[in-house]
């Protein structure tokens, strides 16, 4: 492990101290991780039960919706084993609900149109039961499926219940055996275990506290039940950075963190992948999840390009500045910038004669080779329809769009042009020798 410099540690701790003081939070634990381990952790406040009274990376806090990421991993393991497909309807694996027409992909990305909560009272503050006790009906389908993002705790409760049915074991037993233990998250449990922080609500107008209740959420547990330490949460963050072990393949993790909408070339956007949130701001894309339950707030975010991440755990219902994780990562990047790999020459993935300027009609573009055997099509001048491309998985000699406008579209080269989603790119603007749709005027370019 490479610890941060003392000067960096001071700035990181100062940010945590400000969050705890300004938010009037009983305790806050935060950390940054890189190079496969926690590089720094800091805390403010107090947790009864600790010998020193101060919170530390071995104290449990409730994760809230970060639990959804763990549930999504369990679903993707089923998919990778061939037991389910993300296009399957929920009814195929969890029959009997009035919401069974939604696909697994729609539930994982919050595109199922399901109600955000259950029809029972505030489920996070009362003992939970099984699916039958929720009293679900058609009324929980509040929007048409696949039309728009609508965050749904209910959807992840259904996914977790499906995981339990298919594995023939309780959801917590499945994720413990298949996700938590392989990642070394031995202090992550469904209920508080060992030294754990009490959840508090603080009065909005006075410096007084009130304890929040904590119960087993039943079949809603997959949406927000887990408790974990900062040390364990950093292991989940390192998983999102690519340290996947035997839990999921790197390709599946890449699929997880790919946003279902939002153009990665835009200056700022936020979206959702498969059980993870994805946001882009200030030129940095972060992947992770926030979490909240009565008495607790949490955040876990990673910068995959810099191979670094940050986490925060707090025992308060409301008051945490949610920008803290982004600020911790920005401080780390400023004080100790990520040193990337050295540039080395590499054989281009296509002949050099295919690289360089191309034209879509009169609009100029440039096709470039990228590290890792990829291609990039970039506009020259004002931004246009741009994307990166990788080798097509099934069409020899063809390429497939990886992001932005041409994601999923096929690029095929011919003698003096290339076809991209029926658009013909040529070496000269409207080259008459190329198969330009509609042809090119015999008059050519005139004044």
Automatic annotation (TrEMBL):
<comment type="similarity">
    <text>Belongs to the beta-lactamase family.</text>
</comment>
<keyword id="KW-0378">Hydrolase</keyword>
<dbReference type="InterPro" id="IPR001466">
    <property type="entry name" value="Beta-lactam-related"/>
</dbReference>
<dbReference type="InterPro" id="IPR051478">
    <property type="entry name" value="Beta-lactamase-like_AB/R"/>
</dbReference>
<dbReference type="GO" id="GO:0016787">
    <property type="term" value="F:hydrolase activity"/>
</dbReference>
<feature type="domain" description="DUF7586">
    <location>
        <begin position="349"/>
        <end position="427"/>
    </location>
</feature>
<feature type="domain" description="Beta-lactamase-related">
    <location>
        <begin position="16"/>
        <end position="324"/>
    </location>
</feature>
<dbReference type="Pfam" id="PF24491">
    <property type="entry name" value="DUF7586"/>
</dbReference>
<dbReference type="InterPro" id="IPR012338">
    <property type="entry name" value="Beta-lactam/transpept-like"/>
</dbReference>
<dbReference type="InterPro" id="IPR056008">
    <property type="entry name" value="DUF7586"/>
</dbReference>
<protein>
    <submittedName>
        <fullName>Serine hydrolase domain-containing protein</fullName>
        <ecNumber>3.-.-.-</ecNumber>
    </submittedName>
</protein>
<dbReference type="Pfam" id="PF00144">
    <property type="entry name" value="Beta-lactamase"/>
</dbReference>
